[in-house]
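Hi V.,

Quick status before I head out on leave. The structure for the redesign project is tokenized and pasted below; the design run finished overnight.
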């Protein structure tokens, strides 16, 4: 194991360590404008923490709280002590920004190296990072973790299949970091280029950044002749490296010496029993520059009962089963239906009804937006309709960073529900 002592701690010792680090985190968080006010209003100080269960005495933090404090309201130190920031995608409303000191980056790199070691990567491996870099945490998080582990790291970035294949073959790449939807597309393209995946040097794929089913994972493994390992992360908690599978592929280990994980009923906020699905709540306990306490991720999962056969003692969570809110994740990008509605409703030719469909386009997840057009604009001139269709797709791409399929339909042709409008329909399973 990468950090054997930390990864095999007895439960009592681990919970003692968590309580100590939680107390220190409260001391640090009190230096931020936001938590200073929250703690004052709720009469909270470090003395209330005696055991890790005392985390429940602390209030939740939500994405709305983070947005309200944009950009600097959660920082515990002066800005000149920070060396990196990442921010959420999208242009609607206020984004969330997460800041890192050098120590925070070092801790994150260690968590990533530990995660990679857990799935079998070693210093002798060559990892090709096929994820986007920039404000998205996935690219740089994996990159620095790979270098920390000692792997030769190829920062290929996203897209350009032919170049990806050439790099893999030329440099004998043994591990890939790849988004699940692109992995399926990439597998088909490899064969189309005349290569047999079974003859390629790769052996391990790190997949994450968007929800995917076990069926999709198995398909990736079969099509690429590779072992694909699931991971979990979110920018508010660093990025990737919050939880990772091991070679057993029996759930993702939460690195509990750096995070406290809870699973609650999303309606009541009360804890649920192990094995029961609920909303994941996370607290950082090793981040110094911008600690976040009891963050409601809105991700739905469950604790997997029992201990993993690998010998690690940390709790495991199941793959993410959905969202407690309406956020969509496509190609690693967070998309809210209201972003789409904002654009559509601002176009004069568009009527009042639309529907967002999640579909399979070949092997890749895609968004199809059906838009009703006002009668006076729904003409027989195909060039005019195609121009309108292209314009809507372009405006949506600029907003959500993903190009959707846009289908223009006649006024009143989309079925209307009697109650609350069902704006998002997932057709992927029916098309599988």
């Amino acid at each position: 194991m990468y950090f054997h002592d930390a990864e095999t701690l007895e439960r009592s010792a681990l919970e003692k360590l968590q309580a100590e680090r939680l107390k220190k985190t409260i001391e640090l968080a009190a230096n931020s404008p936001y938590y200073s006010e929250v703690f004052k209003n709720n009469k909270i100080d470090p003395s209330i923490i005696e055991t890790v269960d005392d985390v429940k005495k602390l209030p939740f933090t939500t994405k709305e709280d983070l947005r309200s404090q944009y950009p600097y309201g959660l920082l515990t130190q002066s800005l000149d002590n920070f060396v990196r920031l990442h921010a959420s995608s999208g242009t609607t409303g206020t984004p969330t920004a997460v800041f890192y000191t050098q120590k925070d980056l070092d801790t994150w790199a260690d968590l990533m190296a530990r995660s990679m070691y857990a799935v079998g990567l070693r210093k002798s491996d060559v990892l090709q990072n096929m994820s986007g870099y920039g404000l998205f945490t996935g690219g740089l998080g994996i990159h620095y973790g790979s270098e920390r582990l000692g792997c030769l790291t190829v920062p290929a970035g996203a897209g350009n299949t032919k170049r990806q294949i050439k790099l893999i073959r030329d440099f004998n790449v043994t591990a890939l970091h790849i988004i699940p939807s692109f992995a399926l597309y990439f597998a088909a393209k490899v064969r189309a280029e005349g290569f047999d995946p079974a003859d390629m040097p790769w052996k391990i794929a790190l997949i994450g950044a968007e929800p995917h089913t076990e069926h999709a994972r198995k398909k990736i493994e079969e099509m690429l002749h590779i072992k694909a390992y699931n991971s979990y992360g979110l920018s508010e908690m660093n990025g990737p490296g919050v939880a990772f599978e091991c070679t057993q592929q029996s759930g993702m280990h939460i690195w509990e010496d750096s995070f406290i994980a809870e699973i609650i009923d999303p309606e009541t906020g009360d804890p649920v029993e192990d094995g029961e699905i609920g909303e994941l709540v996370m607290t950082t306990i090793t981040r110094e520059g911008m600690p976040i306490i009891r963050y409601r991720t809105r991700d739905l999962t469950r604790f997997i009962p029992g201990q993993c056969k690998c010998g690690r003692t940390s709790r495991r969570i199941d793959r993410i089963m959905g969202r407690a809110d309406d956020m969509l994740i496509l190609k690693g990008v967070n998309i809210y239906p209201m972003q789409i509605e904002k654009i559509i409703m601002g176009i004069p030719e568009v009527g009042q009804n639309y529907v967002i469909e999640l579909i399979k386009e070949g092997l890749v997840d895609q968004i199809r937006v059906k838009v009703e057009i006002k009668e006076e604009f729904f003409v027989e001139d195909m060039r005019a309709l195609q121009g309108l269709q292209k314009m809507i797709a372009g405006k949506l791409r600029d907003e959500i960073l993903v190009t959707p399929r846009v289908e223009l339909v006649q006024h009143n042709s989309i079925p209307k529900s009697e109650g609350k409008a069902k704006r998002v329909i997932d057709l992927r399973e029916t098309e599988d």
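Above is the designed sequence. Residues 11-29 form the longest helix (19 residues).

G. will cover questions while I'm gone.

Best,
W.
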